[in-house]
Design a protein that fits this description.
37% helix, alpha/beta, Nucleotidyltransferase, domain 5, globular, homodimer, 20% strand, 2 domains, 12 strands, 5-stranded mixed beta sheet
Chain lengths: 295, 295
């Protein structure tokens, strides 16, 4: 038996089938357009594999309703993405495919996969941070993906913002200069007038390192992760990860007495890149389906 | 059989004995002086009750080492409190009393007690925040007190700090203007030149509401607690809790789609006062001992 997984991102969806290990038997990627069209393409993909599927997992952009007892479980809720507010993702898939569906955030799914097969292996409390178009964080806390009122929405934390150095108001439609509003790929593009991958301005990346480090420091103070895995397109800028590590140590100021955050060697093993690359999200979605079946 | 508990605070220690319910059979409170003297007074207190004690729990100011496999487990580590760095609290108590000792932060202990008998009853993910001399937060995540690299040190988060409105540099010896550096009772005393309870300046409390709300917004984005319990002397200032609730809703801006943080009624039940009062810490310490014995 196999499981299906969807990394339902705001830019693209990745659909895949697997027997539950970290190799994919079939993969398809397509752009996120309207809910009807995007869900339709996912249904078409899984219909071909339907007979061998035991269940489906979805790691979705959000915010989403993750509480199975809620009448709106399985929906995307207040997203700023046009047309996607209150989309019943799980309902549409269940109706069309007649399969049990597990549902969590895209970043919680990626954290789950990195914990099972990647950079979070053997850990019980860690974070998976993605810095791409937006900023998202998945959280494994004491061995379980973190849910509460809803789920972590760490891209929307408030951080120090020195308007003398950076008068930019931020791009978050809800909060302006929250973490995502100041430091996402979209924020970089708006502030500097070009995509992040074309930006070579020294000040742009000094500022980016500052904001990413501030955000990670708050993660460290709040969740006390055993490791932080940082992926997404923006963090791949040459030298950025190294600058963030240096600045995190400086900002912590020796207060947290652990070699992971007080030594050069330690922090290289503490703030790390993902090991599953682009497939962490969809692998995690498959793992969500598998865990649900094993319950 | 009974259990002993110590709320080992930076200002005072509370020692108590209980059969494991939320009533205390004996209590003694004394000022935190030197490690030797303070630990000695605790040992003297429990020695009287030694025969009926099955174990001892300690909820301590920190940072502390909470990992039982660590060679420095049971110690206070990098505290700014003079004389208390690297104090082996658990070792001293075990040696003198020959009892098993459970050890966590003072605020994690208080969260445990509020979850068992108080405002966190029935919840699996919630926070206990204390705003007193310092700011501390205990975190229950998915039903377990949160530990990772160390434990939450949420008072040391970085927050927006508008130096035009508030040029004060903050009082944290490690970070200056972290949350505790800006909004603790000590910060209020330093900034305004009088103890918080004597301060009636409008701007003082408007600023305090702003900082407390910013910090709680970050807690909500990061941990997604089902409820936030806020205690400590500072929050008792008339009207402050109400202002914080209003400002939290404003800062969230409707992004998190849950009535708990979008409605007036909801937020009154979401950001609440503790129900165990001054004894939450020591009751939680006793519960730590009981849980350890039941393992």
């Amino acid at each position: 038996m196999s499981y299906g997984g969807i990394e339902a991102g705001g830019t693209k969806w990745v659909c895949a089938v697997s027997d539950g290990a970290d190799e994919l038997a079939a993969v398809q990627t397509f752009a996120t357009t309207t809910p009807a069209q995007t869900l339709g393409r996912a249904v078409d993909f899984f219909a071909v594999h339907r007979q061998r599927l035991e269940g489906l997992g979805v790691g979705s952009f959000g915010p989403i309703d993750v509480h199975e007892s809620s009448p709106t479980w399985g929906q995307i809720t207040t997203t700023p993405k046009p047309g996607w507010e209150h989309t019943d993702v799980v309902g549409a898939l269940q109706d069309a495919l007649k399969l049990p569906v597990a549902f969590d955030t895209d970043v919680n799914a990626a954290a789950l996969a990195e914990g099972q097969w990647g950079a979070g292996s053997g850990l019980t409390t860690f974070c998976y941070v993605t810095v791409g178009t937006g900023i998202g964080v998945g959280v494994m806390a004491n061995g379980t993906l973190l849910h509460g009122l809803i789920h972590p929405e760490i891209g929307h934390m408030r951080l120090p913002h020195d308007r003398v150095r950076d008068p930019f108001d931020g791009v978050c439609p809800f909060h302006g200069d929250c973490w995502e509003g100041l430091a996402s790929g979209e924020a970089l593009r708006e502030r500097w007038g070009c995509p992040a991958y074309e930006n070579s301005a020294t000040e742009a990346w000094a500022l980016e390192a500052e904001y990413l480090a501030s955000g990670l420091v708050n993660l460290i103070c709040t969740l006390s992760p055993e490791r932080i895995i940082v992926g997404g397109g923006v963090i791949n800028h040459p030298g950025l990860l190294e600058r963030v590590r240096v600045r995190v140590r400086e900002l912590l100021g020796g207060y947290i007495s652990a070699p992971e955050v007080t030594t050069t060697d330690g922090i290289e093993r503490y703030i790390v890149s993902p090991t599953l690359g682009d497939h962490a999200g969809v692998l995690g979605a498959i793992r969500l389906a598998q865990l649900r079946a094993l319950q």
